[in-house]
Amino acid sequence: MLAIHQVVHRVAWIFKTESVIMPAFLDAVAPEGSLRGLLRGFLPVVNRFGHSVPPLLYAERLRRMPRKKVSLVVTSGLMAVPFLALSAIWLATERKTQLWFPFVFLALYAVFFAVTGLNQLGYGTLQGKLIRPHRRGRLLGWSGIAGSVCAIACAWLLLARWLAVPDNEPGRIGGFGHVFAFAGGGFLVASAVSCFVREPADERVAATAVRHAHFGTAWRILREDAAFRRLAIVAMLFLTMQQLFPHFEALGRQPLGERTDAVAAQLMLWVVVQNAGTGLFAFILGPVADRFGYRLTLRIVVFTAAAIPILALLLARGPHAGTADRYWVPYFLLGLVPITMRAFSNYALELSPRDRHPHYLSALTLCMGVPFVFSPLIGLLIDLAGFAPVFVAAAALVTLAGLLTFGLKEPREDL
Q1: What SS3 state is found at 202?
Q2: Is residue 406 helix, strand or coil?
Q3: How far apart are CA 105 and CA 260, in angstroms?
Q4: Spatial CA neighbour of 193 closest among 327, 2, 410
Q5: Tens of pLDDT, residues 298-323
Q6: Do residues 334 and 19 make contact, with C-beta atoms less than 8 angstroms apart?
Q7: CA 156 to CA 153: how far, in whole Å?
Q8: pTM for this one?
Q9: Measuring CA to CA, how many Å separate 285 from each of 1, 38, 244, 401?
Q10: In the structure, how many helices (H) and strands (E) does the chain have?
């Protein structure tokens, strides 16, 4: 049932992909003359803040829940609300490019990721409770490949058709009302599926039994556990890649101009190949993680990810700069990023005792949120200096993260 939940979740997620759909939507509602790079820079901020602070505040409450699936059911359903609201606003608004629209969108997007952070904490904790360490890669692999197949089929049939419908302003893609309604409905179905997870209840912990300061708990883990501290440094450097997510779309769209049909077709292609990459890499790397551990898995994916910004620059600015035909290749490799995030979480699960899984996961997500305070600055730098210096610097930082994986311990040696 956890695999089916992830499949449905993936189908909904493909219609809000933060590397393609969300920056395209922000560009569609941002008025001409606004600093769109700066606005796109706030997308990773709200993403990572939601993944970092709310889970930290929620970890102790989740630890005391006898059945962790309750959290998964509720948060999966709440993830639908912001997208159903965005769908209603888009359909009810005649003129889309209004100054208030980007800020309303960012506020709803922040709510969505706050709930998503709680959802992923609940999923990770439930997985740690029910699935043995040597079987988690299998869950990742099969749910990844099945989720990608289903998500790609839905995107291929629906996404380009919806996005190709222009709004009432020339050169602007539309159809976001249907796209977001589909995403919201998918999260509601994922909530319903998670009701059927079979989970034995834990012994109830009294509410007054453990009272840790939320940030103090994360700081103690970081200070006392050297293996976790090394993991946090690698993760923070790697997250430079996710800060570039909204800007890959803007870089690749430049040769397309304002041809609505061409833009819609390319957006659909990029979404499809990225999710195909996620499914394929999950299917390949899941067994690798089960057999050899997550340290080797992290090393492989981090070094591979370091090449993506350079490849994107070469395809966008090199000999083939006049076409977007080959720009799908970086998006295929970007499919590694969700796998890497799951690998970081699973590695943290192996570092920690079972009763501290929520604390370790929330401490990791808090550390991973630190680099995102620079995301608006990255967007502003792209507005002012262009894509090349920012993308090259990001590639260097991710390469450093790969080198630091050689300092990680292998938790399975202690089993």
Answers
A1: coil
A2: helix
A3: 22
A4: 2
A5: 999 999 999 999 998 888 775 555 44
A6: yes
A7: 5
A8: 0.71
A9: 21, 35, 24, 19
A10: 21, 0
